[in-house]
Every structure is written in structure tokens, then in C-alpha cells.
Amino acid sequence: MGGKLKKNDKSYRPNVAAIILSSKYPEVCEIFIASRNDIKDAWQFPQGGIDDNESPKEALRRELQEEIGTGDIEIVAEYPEWIGYDFPDTVAHKMYPYDGQIQKYFLVRLRDDNKIDINTKHPEFSEYRFVKYKNIFDFITYFKRPIYKQVLEYFKKQGYL
Asked: Which CATH architecture has domain 5-157?
């Protein structure tokens, strides 16, 4: 699925995103968020592009290994649709030639929280934390909030959160 998706003369980058639950799930429901290195106060879920000839699940595990130092996860659920969004002007220049992203969301559980290491070969995050569902939007960057809300509410209605 790598490459570009064209829609209304715009170019969208195929991408995966992970809503990561701590290894204490389901007894305790805490969600991993991390602060980006390159955008001040931009907290988000780990995500990344899908390479050519790579499935979304393969990209998910690769991206988690690259961004948080572990792909040792259990996939709990998958959001049933792809969700697209346009980059805000403040970010668009960094993502050229793409106008936005189309994402596949996965709800995953870490097998061992202690394996997280954001000091990877090419660090994307400066810090991370686990937060309760009710506190997540105290952190998440503004342009990701509508999609995160949509996806999190879906997983909540399905009984996962």
C-alpha cells in the first residue's frame, strides 16, 4: 500500500497509527502518548508510513520498533476504515510532497512496558507517558484531536476502553 493515494488533486501518504495500551491492560487502561522531537508540544500516538509491498500490520510492527524500540505487541483491535486528514499549514512544509495522510488505526497492548526505548537510531520522541483515557486530550496536539476522538470513541463503544 506504500506510495501515494490521490483524492481531489491532493496526495495522501498511507500510514499506520498505534493506540498502545500498557501491559497492565485490561486490569488498568492506560494509553501511551509521546511528545515529538520536531514539533513543540505535539503529543501523539506512534505512527508512520507504509512502505511499498508492506501490509499495514507489517508497517505497524516496523514503525513501533523504529519509534519506541519494540514491536512486542498484541493487536487487540483494528479500526474498520481508513481515515484521512490534511496537514495544517504549520506542518505541511515538512511533509512535502504530501498534502495529508490516510491512516489505518490499530489498538494494541504492549507485552512488556519495560521494553520501551524512545532513544532509537532516529529518535522521533523526546518523552512519553501513559495516561488515562479521560486525560488524553489534555496532551494531544490540536490537529489530531478530531480523528483521535473518532477512533477512541469507536474502541470505547466496542468495549475495549
From this structure: Alpha-Beta Complex (3.90)
**Assigned C-alpha cell, 38:** 520536531
Residue pair 126/99 in contact by the 8 Å Cβ criterion: no
Spatial distance between the Cα atoms of 76 and 124, rounded to a whole number of angstroms: 25
Is beta strand 100-110 parallel, antiparallel or unpaired with respect to 10-21?
A: parallel
Residue 115 sits at φ, ψ, to 5 deg, of -85, -5
Tell me the pLDDT of the chain (161 aa) as tens digits: 566 566 667 899 999 999 999 999 999 999 999 999 988 888 999 999 999 999 999 999 999 999 999 999 999 999 999 999 998 888 888 888 899 999 999 999 999 999 999 999 999 999 999 999 999 999 998 889 999 999 999 999 999 99
4: left (phi over 0), alpha (psi -120 to 50) or beta: beta
Q: What single letter denotes the amino acid at residue 135?
A: N
What is the pTM assigned to this prediction?
Answer: 0.91
Sequence spans of domains, the chain: 5-157
Phi, psi of 104, rounded to the nearest 5 degrees: -110, 120
Place of cell 486530550: 137
